[in-house]
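Structure tokens please, single chain.
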Amino acid sequence: MILKWIENKEKNKLMDELSTFIDNLIGERDSFAEKLRNFKKDEEISKLLKENENLRINSLHTLSEKEREEADAFREEHWKKCKGNTSFLLTGASIGTRVEVICSKCKTQKDITDISVW
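Here you go.
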């Protein structure tokens, strides 16, 4: 008799917890549905495009993938060799920007310009 009473009490407790969990899931679902109804795809895309354009305009230079790979390799090599940091020297030309990396310790310079993006 007592054992059955304990089992019923545990069962009721688990059912209450399950019911609370389900109610929370329903509330979360309703919240997401409301967010989805209010989401303005074109407006969000427009906002992100403006932010991207602003970053592009206000950036001094954006490295190409090739330039980034060469700069990373140079940085890694000179960090291992002489624990030097890397500086970038950007020189404007009429058709593009010349990019050089310079080691702060040994002063080695390397031209990493990717002329394919000019």
